[in-house]
Each structure stands twice: as structure tokens, then as C-alpha cells.
């Protein structure tokens, strides 16, 4: 973050100082909404969540080195009080961007945002100072916190932009107007909040390209018809990427090794270069091409992009995170979140990784699937059977039971078990696993199956 006085921050977000002895005190470190992550010289934003109210941790944040607290009420320590902390963070981020001039890259999509963001950051930071979204901090709080990490040296600002309803991306792009907009795909995530079908999701995701200036760049997935349809919604220059021959940034000669890692020939307007990804799953090709499209737009040639992709590794937990246990059991933790598209990709990646080894799937539900939820869970159950997983353990009541029943009636030989909760999943999986097995764990975040994956990964 560029140094700013408390007075400058207060004026940027319309705050009223309380218990502030010196309005000229400098904030020199990033802002955070977690008092445990405060660094000396930082700003603590006190937000009220479902489980905790940051105002209760204001004193601890100042003791840890926060210069002041951005708060909705006085808290007994130096505070800048506003009516809406979330809105104030956005205003502050917008003001900071007026003082520096990085290239703002916004990316959105139903699946693959975080992995693509991580790949892109690792390509770009080899060539210039780059700040990218931490973990999946891609919402109304996370995006301004990312912006506030930028400083005068930042050349590229890579912002993952999530949307759970129409208007979300309009709000986020209002805080950080992008010059480059990347759309990955249109799936069924958050469908119950966006409408009744993919066209409604596309309408929401397309807000990103609508926000681009005429001399900006819209990077669209040539393999997704809903994304291609966004070409008419932007005045920016368009670059297509994908496996389609019409894509200017594309993959040829795609192949997979015995560890389920993909390799391909990267084709860009600047030439060709071989790519060998360190991540598992054929779906990673699309994520890598998306990152390559952005890098191409920013002036990197094919060889530079390939070098960055080849060196890139997984940065975010819970996304096809692999742990090899001493007994030969491989745990694949993909439990950060789930929707039908990511569930299919993850199951296929785990099966490819396993090869001839025995496979176990521990699956919870997929949230926000609206009226089609039961049918979509049943289709996942049928896919588990078609892929010939040896064991399926479903966790929870309702939709997971539809998944279990569909797998059981598919007559493909999968042994199906149901449990009520995470503890039950850990206990049963531990009893059923055999040396050499591959166990795949996935669900929407509210199911908490990340704890199951971590427990299985530490058992030896």
C-alpha cells in the first residue's frame, strides 16, 4: 500500500475520526479484516460477519500494530468511523488507484478463477511487479483489500472477480475499472441467485466486458458459446483463446502423462512454445490458455509465457491439492468449493491420476443449484459410476443422498456408503482405504469437507 495519512484516508471514504491523537499518522502496510493478520503500520477494517464482529477485536488489532480501525462505531482505540465499512473500503481502494497506474486485469467465470489467477500471477511476476488476489478474496471486501496491497511499483494488478448475482461485477469494476477483462466460462454456479439458466449467468458475467474501455482488451473463451456471445457487449478489442481453431491463443497436441499432468503446444500470435503443466487434470489446459491470453495482450511472447506456465505450481489450498501418504495412499483435496462443472473436472482428474489404482470419492453437496439441484447431484452420482470409482461416500442429507442413489442404481459396481457428517466421513474412509488408493474429496464449502481431506492426509 502506498503510505497514506489517516486524514487522507478519512477524506477518501468520508470517515469521522474518533480517539485519533494524530491525523497525520501514516498507514504504510496493507489493510485487513482479520485482526490475526494485522501487520505493523496497517489498517484494520472491522466488519460484522455471521460468526464474529470485527469491532470486538479492534483493541487487539491496534495492539498488534494497526495504526487505526475503520469501523462503523467508536471502539475505544483510534478509529475512522463510517456508515458502511465495506463501502468505505471500496472508496479507499478507488482513491488509491487514482494515485498509481497499474494495468488492472479483471477475470471472472463460473469455474477456474482462482487457478487461472494463480497461473497468471506466476507468469507476470517474472517480468514486472504484480499484485494478485490472495486466496479467493474476490468479493466486495476481498477485491478492495487486494487493491490496497498495490503500491507505486505495481505494474500489474490481477483481480479475481466473483459474482453471485447480477450487478456484482458492475460494483467491483466500479471500484477497480479494468483495462483487460478475461471471461473463463459460464456454468451453473450461483444459479439460484442469478436466474433460471446459463443465459442469466452469462448476463451477469458479461458485466465485466461491458466495463472495459474502447482501447481495452476483452479476452473470451472460444470454446464456450455463452462467453463468445459477450463479444457484442463490449467496445474493447477482442482476443479469443481456447482449443478451437478460431482462437488466436490456443493449444495443439494436448496430451497427459501418467501423473495426470497435461502438456501441449502453445500457439500465440508471437509464435509457438511447448508447455508442460505441473497441475493435474486436462481442464487445466483452458486455465493455462486464459493466462496465456492475458500475457499475450500485455506483450509477452510465446516462449516467455511457456516458461512461466512450466514453472507455475498450485498456490491456493483445497483445489486439487495432492498429499502422498507414507502408506502410498494419495489424498486429493478439492474441497474448497463445488459446482457441477468443477465436480466433473475434479472427478476426471482424480481418476486420471489414479490410473489402475483403486479410487474412493468422498463427496458432499453442491450449493446454489436452484430447482435442478437434485437432478444435478444425481448426474454426479452417475458420473462416479461411469468413471468406475470403486467406492463412493456421500456426506449429508438431501442432495448427497440423490447422488448416492444414482450411483447405486447405475450398476457399475461402485460400493456406495452414506454418512451424516464430516466426522463420519473421516471414520468410514479411514476404515475403507487400502494402501495405494487414491481418495478424492470435494463439496461446496459449507459442507466443511476440507477438514475431512486434511484429516485423511495426516493419517499414516
TrEMBL record:
EC class of the enzyme, as a word: ligase
Pathway assigned in UniProt: Cell wall biogenesis; peptidoglycan biosynthesis
Domain Mur ligase central residues, every copy: 108-295
GO terms for MF: ATP binding; UDP-N-acetylmuramoyl-tripeptide-D-alanyl-D-alanine ligase activity; UDP-N-acetylmuramoylalanyl-D-glutamyl-2,6-diaminopimelate-D-alanyl-D-alanine ligase activity
Pfam family, one: Mur_ligase_C
Residue ranges of domain Mur ligase C-terminal in the record: 318-444
Cellular localisation: Cytoplasm
Residue stretches making up the Mur ligase N-terminal catalytic domain: 32-75
Keywords: ATP-binding, Cell cycle, Cell division, Cell shape, Cell wall biogenesis/degradation, Cytoplasm, Ligase, Nucleotide-binding, Peptidoglycan synthesis
Cellular compartments per GO CC: cytoplasm
Binding-site residues for ATP, renumbered to this chain: 109-115
GO annotation, biological process: cell division; cell wall organization; peptidoglycan biosynthetic process; regulation of cell shape
Main location: cytoplasm
Catalysed conversion reaction: D-alanyl-D-alanine + UDP-N-acetyl-alpha-D-muramoyl-L-alanyl-gamma-D-glutamyl-meso-2,6-diaminopimelate + ATP = UDP-N-acetyl-alpha-D-muramoyl-L-alanyl-gamma-D-glutamyl-meso-2,6-diaminopimeloyl-D-alanyl-D-alanine + ADP + phosphate + H(+)
EC number(s) recorded for this UniProt protein: 6.3.2.10
Function summary: Involved in cell wall formation. Catalyzes the final step in the synthesis of UDP-N-acetylmuramoyl-pentapeptide, the precursor of murein.
Family: Belongs to the MurCDEF family. MurF subfamily.
Protein name per UniProt: UDP-N-acetylmuramoyl-tripeptide--D-alanyl-D-alanine ligase
UniProt source species: Nonomuraea wenchangensis
Amino acid at each position: 500500500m502506498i503510505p497514506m495519512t489517516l486524514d487522507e484516508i478519512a477524506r477518501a471514504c468520508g470517515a469521522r475520526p474518533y480517539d485519533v491523537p494524530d491525523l497525520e499518522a501514516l498507514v504504510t502496510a496493507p489493510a485487513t479484516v482479520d485482526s490475526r493478520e494485522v501487520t505493523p503500520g496497517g489498517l484494520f477494517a472491522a466488519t460484522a460477519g455471521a460468526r464474529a464482529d470485527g469491532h470486538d477485536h479492534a483493541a487487539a488489532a491496534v495492539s498488534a500494530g494497526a495504526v487505526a480501525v475503520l469501523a462503523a462505531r467508536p471502539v475505544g482505540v483510534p478509529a475512522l468511523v463510517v456508515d458502511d465499512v465495506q463501502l468505505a473500503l471500496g472508496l479507499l481502494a478507488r482513491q488509491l488507484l487514482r494515485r498509481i497506474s497499474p494495468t488492472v486485469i479483471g477475470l471472472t467465470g463460473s469455474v477456474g478463477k482462482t487457478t487461472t489467477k494463480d497461473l497468471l500471477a506466476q507468469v507476470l511476476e517474472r517480468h514486472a511487479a504484480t499484485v494478485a488476489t490472495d486466496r479467493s478474496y474476490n468479493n466486495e471486501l476481498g477485491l478492495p483489500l487486494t487493491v490496497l496491497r498495490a503500491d507505486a511499483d505495481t505494474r500489474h494488478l490481477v483481480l479475481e472477480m466473483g459474482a453471485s448475482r447480477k450487478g456484482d461485477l458492475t460494483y467491483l469494476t466500479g471500484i477497480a475499472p479494468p483495462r483487460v477483462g478475461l471471461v473463463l466460462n459460464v456454468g451453473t454456479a450461483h444459479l439460484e441467485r442469478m436466474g433460471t439458466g446459463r443465459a442469466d449467468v452469462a448476463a451477469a458475467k458479461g458485466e465485466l466486458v461491458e466495463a472495459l474501455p474502447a482501447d481495452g482488451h476483452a479476452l473470451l473463451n472460444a470454446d464456450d458459446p455463452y462467453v463468445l456471445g459477450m463479444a457484442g457487449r463490449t467496445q474493447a478489442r477482442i482476443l479469443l483463446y481456447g482449443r478451437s481453431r478460431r482462437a488466436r491463443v490456443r493449444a495443439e497436441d494436448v496430451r497427459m502423462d501418467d501423473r495426470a499432468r497435461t502438456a501441449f503446444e502453445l500457439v500465440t500470435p508471437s509464435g509457438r512454445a511447448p508447455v508442460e503443466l505441473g497441475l493435474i487434470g486436462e481442464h487445466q489446459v483452458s486455465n493455462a490458455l486464459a493466462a496465456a491470453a492475458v500475457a499475450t495482450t500485455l506483450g509477452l511472447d510465446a516462449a516467455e509465457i511457456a516458461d512461466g506456465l512450466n514453472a507455475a505450481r498450485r498456490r491456493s489450498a483445497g483445489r486439487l491439492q495432492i498429499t502422498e501418504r507414507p502408506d502410498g495412499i494419495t489424498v486429493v483435496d478439492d474441497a474448497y468449493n463445488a459446482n457441477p462443472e468443477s465436480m466433473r473436472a475434479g472427478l476426471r482428474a482424480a481418476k486420471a491420476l489414479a490410473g489402475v489404482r483403486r479410487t474412493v470419492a468422498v463427496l458432499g453437496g453442491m450449493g446454489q443449484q436452484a430447482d435442478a439441484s437434485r437432478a444435478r447431484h444425481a448426474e454426479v452420482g452417475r458420473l462416479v459410476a461411469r468413471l468406475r470409482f470403486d467406492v463412493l461416500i456421500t456426506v449429508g442429507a438431501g442432495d448427497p443422498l440423490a447422488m448416492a442413489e444414482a450411483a447405486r442404481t447405475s450398476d457399475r459396481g461402485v460400493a456406495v456408503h452414506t454418512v451424516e457428517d464430516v466426522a463420519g466421513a473421516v471414520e468410514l474412509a479411514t476404515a475403507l482405504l487400502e494402501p495405494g488408493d487414491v481418495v478424492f474429496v470435494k463439496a461446496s464449502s459449507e459442507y466443511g469437507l476440507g477438514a475431512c481431506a486434511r484429516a485423511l492426509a495426516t493419517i499414516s
